[in-house]
Amino acid sequence: MLETFEYFLLAATIVAALALICDGAYLTSRKHQVRKQPKVLAGAAGSGIVDGEDNPGPIQPASRSPKTKGLAWYGSAFTIVAFLLVTVYLIGRMSLTGHGPFANQHEFAVSFTWGILGAYLFFLWRYRIRMLSLVVMPVVLGLMIYAQSLDTGIEPLVPALQNNLLLTLHVSTAILAYGAACVSFGGAVLYLAHKPLSKKIRRMPSADLFDEIGYKAAVFTFPMLTIMILLGALWADTAWGRYWGWDPKETAAFVTWLLYGAYLHARVVRDWRGKRAAWLLIAGFVAVLFAYFGNHFFGGLHSYG
Description:
Blueprint: H1 2-28, H2 30-34, H3 71-97, H4 105-127, H5 133-149, H6 164-192, H7 194-198, H8 207-240, H9 248-269, H10 274-293, H11 295-298
Helix pairs in contact: 1-3, 1-5, 3-4, 4-5, 4-6, 5-6, 6-8, 6-10, 8-9, 8-10, 9-10
C-alpha cells in the first residue's frame, strides 16, 4: 500500500517540474513581454491587476478576470495538482502510520514541500506574482528529490515522539513557518535580481513589490516560529525532562527566530528596506535550512528527524 502512495509523490515531482517549465517559458516568452497593460475599470471597488508581472506600479489586490488557457494557466494548474498529490501522499502515509507525517527526515521533507507549495499558491493568488515560481519551485523540487532519496519505510516511533498531539502541533507550525519563509526568500532573491532580470523580462513587477512580499511572508513566519519553539519546549519537557537544553536543532531554531525577529524590528522600527532587508531574509531562510539539515552533521537529541 505504501508503494502505491509513493507513486503520488513521484507524480507530484514530475508535475512540479512541469509547472516550473511552464512558468519559466511564460515569463520569458515574447508574447508575455509585449503584452499590453490590462485596463482597470474606473471606480471599480477593489480593482487591480490581472497578473502582477503586468503591473510594475503600486501594490493592489488582484482583480478576477476571465482566464485564458496559456502557459500561465498551465503553470498554475500544474502547481495546484502537485500540491494536491503531495496532500494525498501525506494523508495516505498518515492512514498507514496512525500519526502525523513528521516522524523522520523523509516525512518532514515532504511536509516541508507541502508548506512551501501552500504558501506559494496563496501569494500567487493574492499578488499574481508568477515570478516567485522561479525561486520557490526549484526549492520544492530539490526537497522532493531529497525526500525520495531517503528511506521511506515505516518504523515505530521512538519514545520521544510518542506524544502525538504535541508532535503534530509542534511540527505543523514548523511546516507553516518554513513554507512562508521560502516565499519571503523568493521575494528577497527577486528583489536583489530585479535589475538583471528586468533586462530579459520587460514587464517586471516593481522591486518594491518583491520587497513587500518578503515582508508579508516574514510577518507570518515569525509568529509561527515563536509558537513552534514554545510547543517544542513543552514537548522537550515531556520527552526529556527539560524545556531547553541547547541541543543543536534547538539552537538553530532559536537563531532562526532571532534573525526573523531582527528583520521585523529593523523593518518596523528602523524602516529597513531594500538590499539590507533582502539579505537578512536570505540569511533567515539559510538558517531555516540549517535548522532542518543541521542534525545530520551535529547529531543531538533530534538526530532522528
